[in-house]
Amino acid sequence: xxxxxxxxxxxxxxxxxxxxxxxxxxxxxxxxxxxxxxxxxxxxxxxxxxxxxxxxxxxxxxxxxxxxxxxxxxxxxxxxxxxxxxxxxxxxxxxxxxxxxxxxxxxxxxxxxxxxxxxxxxxxxxxxxxxxxxxxxxxxxxxxxxxxxxxxxxxxxxxxxxxxxxxxxxxxxxxxxxxxxxxxxxxxxxxxxxxxxxxxxxxxxxxxxxxxxxxxxxxxxxxxxxxxxxxxxxxxxxxxxxxxx
Length: 245
Hints:
Strand order of the largest sheet: 2-1-3-4-8-7-9
Number of helices: 9
Helix content: 25-40%
Number of strands: 9
Order of helices and strands: HEEHEHHEEEHHEHEHHE
């Protein structure tokens, strides 16, 4: 079997930090689009934060939205280009902090977009500040003594918040090890299959390493996901409804 990169993804140029998980997710999206025959049709909407760096990596038609607004923008794109697959791609800070209203209301309306949210536990682009998903006790640039949940509240868990909503698909994957990467690809593909069947809002959250902002070597950062982060953010499929349309 020939091992090759999808034609929609360029690995000759990247702006992501060494060990960052965005590049892995980018490749998975490219592979899924090739397998589904959607490479030339996919329309993507990215945030102005780290996800905007995909413009150096992938060749899909892409809109850069205001911070926290990729899902709302993707909803508008889908209403205009109903025959195209539409992806909103953003980080946990954008999706669950400044963009939490857009995230929740798109799910409540069951808007027919695929949403991929990268959960690395920090605001990556702006220097590693505490994010809604930062773990209790986690040290960041804005919580140098560790996150105090008595002051900031518990880490945001999208599964707990959206797990009972009437949406077709909700899953959480990881790119911290080979087995999880394979499973995450299956989650992404299933989300797009449901999307192309016009079933509604499909969300895949992906646990991803951020060695630069966590001050860790890439391998150690991935091991932290497997040994620590997954204790709170369990991976798997949480909503997987039968297609009705």
